[in-house]
Amino acid sequence: MKRLGILLSGRGSNFEAIADQVTGGGIEAEIAVVIANRPSAQGLETARQRGLNAVLLPSLGMERVAYDHRLIDELNRNSVDLVCLAGFTRLLSADFVRAFPQRVLNIHPSLLPAFPGLDAQRQALEHGVKFSGCTVHFVDEMLDAGPIVEQAVVPVLDGDTVETLSARILAQEHRIYSDALRLVLSGAYRIEGRRVVRTAG
Fold first, then answer.
1. E-strand stretches of the chain
2. What is the DSSP code (8-state) at residue 97?
3. In sequence order, which residues have a C-beta less than 8 Å from that of residue 7 and are 6 or more positions away?
4. Model's pTM, two decimal places?
């Protein structure tokens, strides 16, 4: 059975959605380790309450590459097959990406390549778009730029705030992250340039 490593920095709601699917048999994998880079990360306590292997690796004041090598060591110590970023707020170095080639997934609250980086929902509102959404993608060495696995679209309503739009997008994040995980774990895809193409698995 494939082993997942979850990286988070905050509440970890996408982690919880994945964990629920694993527990219920919707995702055929096990969560080998949950790692947080902030002591205040609520997701770390949630992982402990679920009886999962929860590890705090504080990143404050650490240089990016040095910290990422600590992360790599911890993930390898737990024999992780696939890394899932679930609200992990640090940019990963090229060293990290090369350590897990095409084995790191991220969820982003916009329809990439639109609105990469921070505050994607605010960016969407400020640009006046009529639709936004979320994207699960493989992580490469560029910010929010790897091959796209799954996307979901949500309407942007005239009265939306950052909070109401974020909540609508988050509900879809919980759904498509699990869908993307199932696809990647099945191996029923190939990557052609920037495209993730489903195959008969």
1. 2-8, 29-36, 54-56, 82-85, 104-108, 131-138, 148-155, 189-192, 195-198
2. H
3. 35, 36, 37, 71, 83, 84, 85, 86, 88
4. 0.95
Bridge partners, residue 134, by sequence: 152
CB 81 within 8 A of CB 2: yes
61 backbone dihedrals φ, ψ, rounded to 5°: 80, 0
What is d(CA 123, CA 140) in angstroms, rounded to the nearest whole number? 23
CATH code of the domain covering residue 85: 3.40.50.170
Please identify which residue in the block is written with the tokens 């509102």: 125
Which of 101, 132, 150 corresponds to the end of one domain? 101
Residue 196 DSSP SS3: strand
What single-letter amino acid sits at 162? Answer: V
85, pLDDT greater than 70: yes
Is residue 167 scored above 70 in pLDDT? yes
Domain, as residue range, for 90: 1-101
Per-residue pLDDT, 201? 59
Q: Are residues 141 and 69 in the same domain?
A: no
Task: Give yes or no: 137 in active site.
Answer: no
Same domain, 22 and 96: yes
pLDDT over 80 (residue 12): yes
Catalytic residue among 69, 108, 127, 137: 108
Q: Write down which residue in 101, 120, 145 finishes a domain.
A: 101
